[in-house]
Amino acid sequence: MTAPSDERLARAALSRLGEPGDLRLCHLAAELGPQRLLAALAEDRPRDDGLRDDVAERLRHLDPAAELARAARQGIRFVVPGDEEWPDGLDDLAGAGALHERGGVPVGLWVRGPLRLDEIAPGLAVVGSRASTTYGDRVAADVAAEASLAGVTVVSGAAFGIDAAAHQGALGARRPTVAVLACGVDKVYPAAHRALLDDVVRTGAVVSEAAPGCAPQRVRFLARNRVIAALARGTVVVEAAARSGALNTATWASALGRVVAGVPGPVTSGSSAGVHERIRNGSMTLVTSGADVLELVGSAGEHLVEPPRAPTTRRDRLTARQRQLLDAVPVSTGVPADSVARVAGVGVLEAASLLRRLETIGLVERDEDGWRLGRAEPA
Amino acid sequence: MTAPSDERLARAALSRLGEPGDLRLCHLAAELGPQRLLAALAEDRPRDDGLRDDVAERLRHLDPAAELARAARQGIRFVVPGDEEWPDGLDDLAGAGALHERGGVPVGLWVRGPLRLDEIAPGLAVVGSRASTTYGDRVAADVAAEASLAGVTVVSGAAFGIDAAAHQGALGARRPTVAVLACGVDKVYPAAHRALLDDVVRTGAVVSEAAPGCAPQRVRFLARNRVIAALARGTVVVEAAARSGALNTATWASALGRVVAGVPGPVTSGSSAGVHERIRNGSMTLVTSGADVLELVGSAGEHLVEPPRAPTTRRDRLTARQRQLLDAVPVSTGVPADSVARVAGVGVLEAASLLRRLETIGLVERDEDGWRLGRAEPA
Description:
The structure is a homodimer.
Chain A: H1 6-17, H2 23-32, H3 34-42, H4 51-59, H5 64-73, E1 76-79, E2 98-99, E3 102-103, E4 109-112, E5 123-128, H6 134-149, E6 153-156, H7 162-172, E7 177-181, H8 194-203, E8 205-208, H9 218-231, E9 234-238, H10 245-255, E10 259-263, H11 273-280, E11 285-286, H12 290-297, H13 320-327, H14 337-344, H15 348-360, E12 364-367, E13 370-373
């Protein structure tokens, strides 16, 4: 293995120094370059933006070369801008603004697992409530499986509920999936998802902006959500109550100009309230299936969805004249053929002949009063 | 009771002669006036449009004066354009085009019940699948009750399923409701809804474009749907499979420039597929409650809906500084106060003091390793 470049070392140092999505750090790294930023921070003088004070303690313990070597021994690589593996989509974060004072292009991402980040595209983020319902879990798994089978990689956050269902849907379809964590990729959070993360890392990737060893903190979840959104061509939200963290991911996807979709659910529980509100106000597109989602995230014409149609009915196979007559047959009590003829505006002889034909295919039947509809639906 | 005018007699005759929503008849009645149209049809010569042939048989049996008198004895009135009771909204059908070759302003409406048609406005049509689910029935009844209590009259078609649930929701709120039938208002269809229609007619109105005695035919359902849409300021669809008749009512509401809304449901059954498709393609607005619907059909500012919000949390009541610190506390394993201070960018002494304050309100707690979040949600 060749020695890491100075830039990679500087980025590893900045990743350890700063918090994920720290706007000052991300923007200065992009503006000055990582090495100059690191040198500036190492100077022992205060800065107007307070960044120096925040990182002062950590600066004393930096050893990025040792850290990268230790990570490599644990099967963890540090992917940075300029690497072949660095996905273009992440650079869109430079222009996507800030949410909760988090934003910007990560200085690098720590990755475990065989899936290369540049192989994720087109990715689909499937996120939602941790307090999901059985309905939500099922839909998330279905959407994830269908997307995976169509060659779209599912990206999520490995949280309880919808995230887990999405990863499991992809894994169940025997396709790789990507889990973006708020803690270091060597940590397991939530602890109950050790087996899930083991499964993810076997064929896919576990990714974090936070350096190995970092614990999950609230700010890190918020920063993490922007990475999920940026790694995917579109984000679909399955179940999100008002103010759910999943809506934060959707907001990032919007800010990045990506597709944002939501799956509706029963209005009688609050579990889809956040999704319904965003569909209602036009910031999410309603989707009901993996096929709908694929149509949205696919390149034009790549995935085409048929508008839902009822199955072809016997009525569809009738001639126009037969339909005209059928429309005039009463639903409940029968009437004589001449009455049907009059309503339909058809001669009596023709009507009688058409009625007999409709009777043979079960669309009309005769009772003591005359002709009425068979079991076909009236409207 | 004064004798009916010649125009009313002519309209009653045309109502008996023609089919509901017969485009030729509705348009000619508007163009020539009902008396001249009736005289033209009585002339014994064929017409290019075939209308004469269709009505020839019925012409021989016309006695509109006797018919109106018989209707009056049954508590049925015939409301025509120009009557004080005639609602303006019906006249919009003149410019709303045709669907399934049905359209135009009715020559008159047959009405039973104390509610005057001009007292319906602002009406709300609540329609949907006859093969409804328990979920759909519940939502339809809730929306209908809430609209009724806000002074919006619920209009529907008295069919099985959602229609019945909508009427029952209004009746349960002790408010009048309007049932528009495809058969004569003296008939009961479906037969199982005799009690429901009795309840509707006690305080509200049962309405039909078809003359008394007419049976329910498929064309009459299609024509009926446009009357439901025209009597209401908006139409909300609760559960409609692809190609459901309820979507026909929604299409009429769109053609009339009225509000069209749909309630989403689980995507795992087909019962809301038609609604989802129309929300997705932008021809329906997603609504989740009576309050949402009222906001749409109300005059501007009359009914304002609050966007859904999670209940205020303890976190909302924190100072900015407390929140900044809280965001830096790990979710799972505790960390020392100086680590929290560093992540938060806050001095160690201040951090320790803030942490103790957060501990008293249960937002953070201490374990053997240090500070971590209480039961509050991490993201």
